[in-house]
Amino acid sequence: MMFKRSLSKNFDKTFLLVALLIFIIGILTVYSATQARNLPFSESFFVKQAVWMLIAVLFMIIALAVSYQRFIDISYVIYALNVLLLIFVLVLGKSRLGAQRWFPIGAFAFQPSEFIKLSLILVLSGYVGARKDTMARAGNMVIPCILLGIPFALVLLQPDLGTALLLLPIFLSILVVGGASLKYINGMLVAGLAVIPVFWHFLKGYQKQRLLVFINPNIDPLGAGYNIIQSKISVGSGGLLGKGWLNGTQNQLNFLPERHTDFIFSVIGEEFGFIGAAALVLLYFVLVKKAFTISNTTSDMYGKCVATGVGMLLAMQVIINIGMTIGLMPVVGIPLPLVSYGGSSLLSTMIAIGLLLNVGMRRSTF
């Protein structure tokens, strides 16, 4: 009991409250983005998202209650199981919009690629933490590159370019915190830039088109450029204060595609305006800042790597999603954490939050 009380002193209630507030904003926006479909309430996206949140909270509690060191101990098992799921989904998964990423589970769908981000954080944290004094050696860079390369290739085959690319900053941030030599990291970055022309030829046709319309959406305004054009119209039309909840024209008249998932920030911009969108960004800033504060104040290298990986995951998802909705980044299908509709994304995010709070509670016990 004394141990539990000592842990509770470091429990960051503000972090959890901010995360729940973001979810409330998200589920209200999901309702606004989907209510025009006139589905029975029990089958609505609003109810499904609420059910997923209840499940996600249970998993978050588990991630919070068990010491993160236990998860580190079995990280290779978690990683291997996740890799197997990525292989199975390529064979048995459900195909949608040209991608094969989901296992159908009744009225829901399970997306293994959402969890490989957490698996990679844990397995890299375990590897780097065990070699905290020797990570500057070139030989210790081989295994991390293999651990990254396997899921990167499998996710790319689905194809899911956004999630595959998201693994890279997670990988690099953990290596930097773990003491890897910047000389080798810079070498990998240069090598990565050098293979981009070759990488281009392996992209699907629609992926190439998305990258091209990022430069100029008007080259295909009714095709690949349509989403980003309508998204920018939605955000811009919201003005300072927005049109009000359920009153977004682009949203309610069905001009904005994928508005409950990838482009949900556009709905927020239209209905809540610049003030509402800025408030949401501020809430995300609080989450990310607290994540890196936990990393900086944790003496245990395993925990420091976990917190850094989760903080980078949250930050990059927010930057990429918002960036693509306002035309600053290519459309790559990255969900907005805790806001976009999707059970797998919500579940993985809440587990990540549980792990982060776990590290924060136990940072003074190692």
Helices and strands in order, then pairings?
Blueprint: H1 2-8, H2 13-34, H3 45-65, H4 68-73, H5 75-92, E1 94-96, E2 99-105, E3 108-110, H6 113-130, H7 142-157, H8 161-177, H9 182-194, H10 196-200, H11 205-215, H12 226-237, H13 249-252, H14 264-296, H15 301-325, H16 343-362
Antiparallel strand pairs: 1-2, 2-3
Helix pairs in contact: 2-3, 2-14, 3-16, 5-6, 5-7, 6-7, 6-8, 6-15, 7-8, 8-15, 12-14, 14-15, 15-16
| Order of neighbouring strands in the sheet with most strands | 1-2-3
Major β-sheet annotation: 3 strands, antiparallel
Secondary-structure content class: mainly alpha
Gyration radius (Cα, Å) is: 20 Å
N-to-C series of helices and strands: HHHHHEEEHHHHHHHHHHH
Helical content (DSSP H or I, runs of 4+): 55-70%
Helical stretch tally: 16
The CA-CA distance between the termini, in Å, is 18 Å
What is the tally of beta strands? 3
Shape: globular
Your description of this structure?
The chain has 366 residues and is mainly α. The protein has one domain. Helix content is 68%, strand content 4%. A three-stranded antiparallel β-sheet has the order 1-2-3, covered by helices on one side. The model has no long low-confidence stretch (mean pLDDT 89).
Q: Which features characterize this protein?
A:
16 helices, globular, mainly alpha, 3 strands, 68% helix, single chain
Describe the structure concisely.
This protein has 366 residues and is mostly helical.
